Amino acid sequence: MVKSALSRTTIYILLSLGAVLMLLPFVWMISTSLKAPNEVMAMPPVWVPAEWKFENFTEAMRVAPFDRYFINSVIVTIVSTIGELITTILAAYAFSRIQFYGRDIVFAVLLGTMMVPSEVLLIPNFVTLSNLGWIDTYSALIIPWTASVFAIFLLRQYFLGIPKELSFAAKVDGCSEFKFLWYVMAPLAKPALITVALLKVINSWNAFLWPIIVTNSQELRTLPVGLSAFTTEAGIKYELLMAASSMVILPMLILFFIMQKYIVAGVARTGLKG
């Protein structure tokens, strides 16, 4: 009994230390966003500003057209998320329920592509989009990211955990594969679908490298790219950069805290059946 309590206490201490380490960058970001310029690089570090500079947030918004960047981020995030959900549902259902020649081989090859670093694909993808004439368009920002092997894998594992008897009963009632997918499988896989959608929203909202490569005009830049406006030849205005960064990540933090139970449920249920 004592050993069990000691073990539980040790786990709680380690988890608490991990939580503190994870929160420190966020605390420092918020603290810096409220500092005066002379406090940003002060040594020893200043955690609590002598005077809270809330005007840093309004000044940061004047450095670049963040209203345009916000609209672009919303458009790209929503459209790419919807696109990924559609392709993921169709592909996951095919790999979990439909028997066709070479199904497992194709799925294994898809999983193998996850081992290829994304940086390796940047130049081939850029050349492809350039040949299509999509550079500096919404198509370049959205279409390449409307499919995800990880999302397909995640949802396939969830579909495998749904009893096959439901499929047999639906076929007896004359239900087609398409209707069974959209009216039975998809609703039952709601936790996994929410997980896929949330992960996609977060990744799309925070994307930096790809948008800066395929866009040339300010009208198509997204919020993470807009943060580079605070880096100039004269140096980096850290207090303004941290203020803008706090506003950029705020929607994602709120979304995550509201929906985190669905992420946990969706990931946990994928392990029911391999």
Automatic annotation (TrEMBL):
Q: Just give the chief location class.
A: membrane
Under the heading CDD domains, the entry gives: TM_PBP2
| Membrane topology according to the record | Multi-pass membrane protein
Per UniProt, which keywords does this protein have? Cell membrane, Membrane, Transmembrane, Transmembrane helix, Transport
| Entry-linked PROSITE patterns | ABC_TM1
Any transmembrane segments, and where? 12-31, 69-93, 105-126, 138-159, 180-202, 240-259
Q: Does the keyword Aminoacyl-tRNA synthetase apply?
A: no
User: Can you say where in the cell this protein is located?
Assistant: Cell membrane
One Pfam family per UniProt: BPD_transp_1
Entry similarity comment: Belongs to the binding-protein-dependent transport system permease family.
User: What name has this protein been given in UniProt?
Assistant: Carbohydrate ABC transporter permease
Which species is the source of this protein? Gracilibacillus xinjiangensis
